[in-house]
């Protein structure tokens, strides 16, 4: 499902190459040259930023990584003997709900000692400030750690759900849950070291639904590998992307998921897309700006108050 969406948006990206949309002849050549290589000119970005009324900010794993949040993916990214893609699946949960809950319990507990970094804070401050000027900021994130919320972001679309929400496998009820531990049986469990044995918690002692008469087994309200994104959240995302007049891609690249699902449709409308990430950028991309480096360093000056802002 995700793959086919990705291929679809990639095809759209190719078929709607901006130079093919026939901008005025005098500007055509200049525009294509600009598009051939994204600009890293902060003063130019700030001009665009100052005029934007609806800013969509897509954030990825890089923003969380700068707060020291482990992803359990890639080289060295293990919890016990496993990586996230082996535990964050409906099959793993059906087979061994105790082990999967230990994994998520550990991830929730880790977050007690993690804090928003300057990128999270700059985004939240920008939203607060711009809202007083009748301008809007929305954050569309794949991160499940709630650091954007902790930083003060109000308008937040969590496309992969949250570590701090549960969903009942029986009645479907979704609940915010910040308890530590989430249930008594998980207290002191979830240690990540490879030699630690499974706690083998009886399923009736794992987190259970508290809705009247339900008592169903709860699962983390996160999108697992092989699952589709929530349709209501996607509808919200589409609505925001349709009205945004500036799009930032932060802590990921606009050509990899999740931004690759969204950025091409924004860019196809001629809306500027600005990337803030560590990765080098292929020169053929059709976004306007690229600011290399840690987003905790590059983003705060980009989103700071502009001299034309009268209300702060
Ligand atoms: Zn229930």
UniProtKB/TrEMBL annotation:
Keywords: Cytoplasm, Metal-binding, Mitochondrion, NAD, Nucleus, Transferase, Transit peptide, Zinc. Its cofactor is Zn(2+). Substrate binds at residues 104, 107. In contrast to class I sirtuins, class III sirtuins have only weak deacetylase activity. Difference in substrate specificity is probably due to a larger hydrophobic pocket with 2 residues (Tyr-104 and Arg-107) that bind to malonylated and succinylated substrates and define the specificity. This is NAD-dependent protein deacylase sirtuin-5, mitochondrial. NAD-dependent lysine demalonylase, desuccinylase and deglutarylase that specifically removes malonyl, succinyl and glutaryl groups on target proteins. Has weak NAD-dependent protein deacetylase activity; however this activity may not be physiologically relevant in vivo. Binds 1 zinc ion per subunit. Belongs to the sirtuin family. Class III subfamily. InterPro entries: DHS-like_NAD/FAD-binding_dom, NAD-dep_sirtuin_deacylases, Sirtuin, Sirtuin_cat_small_dom_sf, Sirtuin_class_III, Ssirtuin_cat_dom.
